[in-house]
User: What shape does this take?
Amino acid sequence: MNIFSKGFAIKAGWLISFVAIAIFLSGCTSIGKGVTQAILEKTESEDNRVCQVWGQPFSGIDAGLTQSKGKTKVLFVHGVGGHMPGYTTQFLEKLAKQLNLNVRSEDQKNIKLTTPLVPGRNIGNLRVTHLFNEENGKELTFYELTWSEITREEKALLAFDNSGEYDFRRARINSVLKKFSNDTGPDPIIYLGKSREAILAAFAQSFCWMATGDWDDLPGSGQHACNGLDDSSIYHIANDDYVLISHSLGSRITIDGLQRIAHMMADPTKYSDPKRKIGVSNKSIAAFQNKHIPIFMLSNQLPMLQLGRELPEVTGQYANYCDPKGADYNKRLFSETSIIAFSDPNDLLSYGIPPGFSEKYLDSRLCARITNVNINIAKIMDAFGISDLANPLEAHLGYGQDDRVIALIANGIGNQKASPLIKQKCEFTKTVE
Assistant: This one.
């Protein structure tokens, strides 16, 4: 077991311990229901949860929804655990309400992803939803990547541990926790093995479909491969706004996926096959180099998931690749990648990004800029003689349902269009180099 695996196992152990405490406390309502209800109502009324943002101002998704050229497209990448297509429904409904997108496509498009680089393998599902407002012309295409079916087959090794002929030997609460552990714990370990290439290919395919065309251009269903970006994609790449949202392990997948794309674009002929129309044209690469890509990382784990890993191909050369006067400026992937990292201090599996991390541990060709969002997702309670208690499971899973998180993604901070909720509840500190 390498450093990464040990680190995850320790963190997962703490998470399970605290989940047990949370379940125990919730069970105490039968002992003192009136007292518990009073405590919860007091916590609800006060709601002094922290929301602090350090970094550069950002505008959020709403800024590009009414542009005259191009569309706004959002790709969501999930974290550990088994997911089914549609897992973002609650998040997407809240986001649509915040963006005032009151009309949506009756059906979603579901593309079974495949690629010649991972032949003969289904690498996940891309579920696409079209949202808009008929009165003001706002429009959004939302892409939801489900990659967990790649790891489902390998996690079947633990099926006996969850089966009726073995699971009955556990206490009821321990059974719930063990099933949770068996579903989530293996994914980071599997990601370090042979399935890593398939998961990153699923991300690349999703990104490719997002950049290839608009809603009407996408297949409605079936198994398809996005084989590349030729000159017909240049208009979309140049004019569309691309936004990435990730959760937990999905943030590592997103960064690794972009770094993999940077590697492939550095030598496009190596990954091209004109006969099968596979590859990316030089004009498409040039169009990407002018893009600004924001990534909203929920329950950010980049520092922990860097443990035990080799450094990217190109590091410590931000000025060379990202300054217009730099020697390798024409070899960058994007003009800027804005990473907005959300972490709850009570989420045992999330971390803020420390100064210097980007320069040392992220590929310089991404031209990454970091903004940290320190936000209490779970409420802190004083209950039954235990002070300062917050449910770490809620702190890890609740980002997509938190109104402040939704408002930050939709309208940003440090700008005139920031939500009144954010102006009231969040502190913003602009940082300079």
Summary: The mean pLDDT is 85. The radius of gyration is 22 Å.
